[in-house]
């Protein structure tokens, strides 16, 4: 059994995430892994669990937040929810 590093649950089926820098994290659920490892949107602070958007080295949960913060730098971004069929 291993203890989740976020909630402390001692769980019989934990999983580990091996990071590129060599760090290893142990979790009992994806929720705990997201809480610990997912980045926050620079605008709304929500956890970025999907792909997200990067503009000028800053990360956002989607196009709306990127446009709100970055203005003209992000004006041409199109997310899947804002794209219109051809």
Describe, in plain words, how this protein is organized in 3D.
By secondary structure, the chain is α+β, with helices and mostly antiparallel strands. The protein contains two helices and six strands; from the N terminus they run ββββαββα. The chain has helices at residues 30-37, 63-70, and strands at 2-3, 10-11, 15-18, 24-27, 53-55, 58-60. The strands form three sheets. A two-stranded antiparallel sheet has the order 1-2. Strand 5 and strand 6 (58-60) form a beta hairpin. The radius of gyration is 17 Å and the shape is elongated. The termini are far apart. Mean pLDDT is 87; it is low at 82-86.
Brief write-up:
The chain is α+β, with helices and mostly antiparallel strands and 86 residues long. It is built from 2 helices and 6 strands, in the order ββββαββα.
């Amino acid at each position: 059994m291993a203890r989740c590093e976020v909630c402390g649950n001692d769980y019989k089926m934990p999983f580990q995430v091996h990071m590129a820098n060599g760090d290893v994290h142990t979790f009992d659920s994806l929720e705990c892994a997201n809480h610990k490892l997912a980045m926050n949107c620079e605008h709304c602070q929500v956890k970025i669990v999907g792909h997200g958007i990067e503009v000028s080295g800053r990360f956002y949960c989607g196009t709306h937040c990127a446009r709100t913060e970055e203005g003209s730098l992000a004006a041409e971004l199109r997310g899947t929810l804002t794209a219109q069929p051809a």
